[in-house]
Give the backbone structure.
Amino acid sequence: MMVGGIHDLTTDFHGVSSPEFDPNGKLVYAARRDKGDVAVFQGGDAGPGFDEILSPVIFTEDAQHFAYVARQGQDFVEVRDNKPILTISAGKRGATSVGWIAISADSAHLAYETITGGRNFKAAVTMRAFRTVIIDGKSGSEYNALGLANFNFDPDSRHYFYEVIGAEGDRDLVNVDGHESRLYDAVANTHYLSDGKTIAFVARDGSRFLRVTFTLSPATTLHSVSTAALTGTTGPGSHDERLTSSWAFSE
């Protein structure tokens, strides 16, 4: 859940980012200091300095904890309560940006999209870059894609999905709990159905519009976490598709 935080950060920014109030009324912002590093401030307390702050700041529902992603050298650094927790190497391409950051409703799981882009991406000539979803410190599949969109945890914080835009050329797919759909010409409106057991999305396959469903498997869930993640420890031309097994997207 996004609650306030830092939004207007750009590479090599100087001065102070757009300030926001955290849920407890403390001012939260990032500032580049005289020595050249960037730090996140909560009230009067400054966090450690980094080369860049790459993501907004996200707070837990109870406003007791917060997290963000920074860059130090060529690495992504996951920061919780202004303490560096995890460093993720971006390799020779370097840490470029973070597309989004999200936390599950029960505050047990933290996810974000890391982006490592080449010269054309950095110059805003293309949106195609190497993109990965990190969940609870673990890297998912890497995609050379245009975007990883519409990420969502389920209401019980046991499953997740996201759309991979431009996964191969102009074709898209949906990733559910690490399982990939086939490629479609377009995907949209991925969502949980009211039964709490099924994910559905709309896909275009040539001239056909499809309703694709995926039944969530109880055997594939995010591991339960006993403490909060941030403590540091259809119409004309349509077709209705349904699953024939819990491990496949129906066609």
In short: The CA atoms of residues 17 and 30 lie 5 Å apart. The longest strand covers residues 160-168. Residues 119-122 form the longest helix (4 residues).
